[in-house]
Amino acid sequence: MKKLALLFAMLLLTSVAARAQFEKGTFILNPSVTGLDFSYSKNSKAHFGLGGQVGTFVANGFALLLNGDVSWSKPVDTYGLGAGARYYFSSTGIYLGAGLDWERYSYDGGMRSSDWGVGLEAGYAFFLSRTVTIEPSVYYKWRFKDSDNSRFGIKIGFGFYFK
């Protein structure tokens, strides 16, 4: 119980120190450089993916983002581009995000297709320093044309915040 209370106190102190990072005019760069983008969908059981986001805070706690990603799995490789937004709750580092994206699918055997979709994300920005975070999150991407390509997953990225 003491360890849990200590962990909670450390997260609270880190979050209070992070308040200035979510202010209007701050830029965010969020690469998923660890490659831990494992997800599950009906068409591909698990995949390895890399992605990145770049954006700016247009209001305190509210960021607009552009993103791109690539993932490899059997039997399909996926390449995507999109735009979205994140809302950070107060100075806690907890955020919710949503966006619209386009994905291109390249199947084994040469067949290709593309699809639009909507994504939802919830995560936490854990500050390692004043400007660097580790950001674990869960997400769901829903596809318009082929719901078999919809997926739920977990990813870990880094955040870099610049004034």
What does this molecule look like?
There is one protein chain. Helix content is 10%, strand content 60%. With 163 residues, the chain is mainly β. It has one domain (2-162): Beta Barrel (Porin). Mean pLDDT is 81; it is low at 11-18 and 33-37.
Condensed summary:
This protein has 163 residues and is mainly β. It has one domain: Beta Barrel (Porin).
Q: Could you tell me the radius of gyration in angstroms?
A: 17 Å
Mean residue pLDDT: 81
Total of helices: 1
Would you count the extended β strands for me?
10
List the strand order in the largest sheet.
1-3-4-5-6-7-9-10
CATH top-level class: Mainly Beta
Content of β-strand: over 45%
Q: Specify the CATH architecture.
A: Beta Barrel
Overall spatial form: elongated
Write the CATH fold name: Porin
Give helix and strand order, one letter per element, not per position.
HEEEEEEEEEE
Main beta sheet: strand number and arrangement? Answer: 8 strands, antiparallel, barrel
Distance between the termini: 38 Å
The helix fraction, in percent, is under 10%
What is the count of structural domains? Answer: 1
Low-confidence stretches: 11-18, 33-37
Structural class: mainly beta
